[in-house]
Amino acid sequence: MDEPSPPPRIVIADDNHQNVELLEAYLGDFDCEIRTAHDGEETVRVVEEFRPDLLLLDVMMPRLSGFEVCRKLRANDATRDLLILMVTALNEASDFERGVQAGADDFLTKPVNKIELLCRIRGLLRVKHLKTQLDRTLAYLAEFEAASRGSTSAQMP
């Protein structure tokens, strides 16, 4: 039987303290560990130190924009697979296109709806869990295949 997995780790990155508090309140009943960041450079540092499963990322932040943060995290092998949900007041198609090009996994437009936020988070974390299971299964099958090839060649004269 599988061991229960630890609660997901989430970073909330927004330069507006009221937005951070609102997102923290929305996640209050969601079993997770939360860290916060208030500008782009701090976000990169917190992500590298905390190793979250998911980043709730504002686009318009000081020092580095959310787009720049996203590109930086995607360029780093250690953070390349981090789930990034951009939470933004921007709602033009070109803004979403820039986010996709930067590497965002999904978007929410402010003001954030609590139910929609929680549904998106659960969906993204579920996809991550399934990908992890798939990767483990593929690694197991590769090991099994290599072991069976090794035992077959050892039996040949």
- Order of SSEs: EHEHEHEHEH
CATH architectural type: 3-Layer(aba) Sandwich
CATH H-level superfamily: Response regulator
State the major sheet: 5 strands, parallel
Number of beta strands: 5
Helix percent band = 40-55%
Judging from the principal axes of the Cα atoms, what is the shape? globular
How many helices? The count is 5
CATH T-level fold name: Rossmann fold
At the first level of CATH, the class is Alpha Beta
Radius of gyration, Cα only, in angstroms?
19 Å
| Share of residues in strands | 15-25%
Q: Mean pLDDT across all residues, rounded? A: 90
CA distance, first residue to last residue: 41 Å
Based on secondary structure, the structural category is alpha/beta
Tell me the strand order in the biggest sheet: 2-1-3-4-5
Q: What is the structure about, briefly put?
A:
This protein is an alpha/beta fold and 157 residues long.
Report on this structure.
The chain is of the alpha/beta class and 157 residues long. It has one domain: Response regulator (Rossmann fold, 3-Layer(aba) Sandwich), CATH 3.40.50.2300. The chain contains 5 helices and 5 strands. A 5-stranded parallel sheet has the order 2-1-3-4-5, with helices on both faces. β4, α4 and β5 (106-109) form a beta-alpha-beta unit. α2 (40-50) packs parallel to α3 and α3 packs parallel to α4. It is globular and about 60 Å long.
